[in-house]
């Protein structure tokens, strides 16, 4: 069973990596594939180039067997729609159980995603939850939940796609936006992201760090 975790990763940080690792361990994923998006459809465009975001991701998970990095979205022009990515993965892995991992915040906007209902034709959806953040109780998303939801992670292995699981993870109040702000103001962002990622940021002069850092 393979986990898929997409994002801009501008930069990748412990708020991405820790919950993804917890899901890998607790739902028994063979590996989590990190999929950096090329042209994210729902948000402002990244500050770092695709090559720089890839260098940061590779630095973050280089020696960790729980993660791999998948660059297929960089190879496609136009918006990086998740549905297209899933179709391309499915073409390579017929029959493999695929689980798309997303945060509850992202899930609440899920019905605005490109052809969102078709996503479960290609993968499961695992929504990372935390106390107090509930799924919608009414509307088309609530209907979608009641149609596809399973209570137990072991069920995901029994099928290749089509199921929805809510799973609690440790969520850390870390965002790429905050890290970029800290660095742009000349402060240190250590302990919010791997040191190896900070090294790429400094060597590339990313996020207006220039030469301000103290080593
Ligand atoms: P930015 O602040 O630039 O918007 P971001 O840090 O929120 O970026 P993205 O790379 O765009 O991160 O997010 C990728 C995925 O990771 C999304 O599904 C998002 O919900 C999730 N995510 C981001 N930060 C966290 C966090 N601290 N805890 C859990 N999930 C997170």
Account of the protein in words:
- This protein has about 220 residues and is of the alpha/beta class.
- It has a single domain, classed as HUPs (Rossmann fold), CATH 3.40.50.
- Helix content is about 30%, strand content about 15%.
- The chain has 7 helices and 6 strands; from the N terminus they run βαβαβαβαβαβαα.
- It has a 6-stranded parallel beta sheet.
- The N and C termini lie far apart (about 40 Å).
- The C terminus is likely disordered.
- Bound molecules: adenosine-5'-triphosphate (ATP).
Helix content: 25-40%
Order of helices and strands: EHEHEHEHEHEHH
CATH topology: Rossmann fold
The number of strands is 6
The CATH superfamily name is HUPs
Roughly how many Å is the radius of gyration?
17 Å
How many discrete domains? 1
CATH class: Alpha Beta
How is the main sheet built?
Answer: 6 strands, parallel
* Count, helices: 7
Strand order, sheet with most strands: 3-2-1-4-5-6
> How many angstroms separate the termini?
41 Å
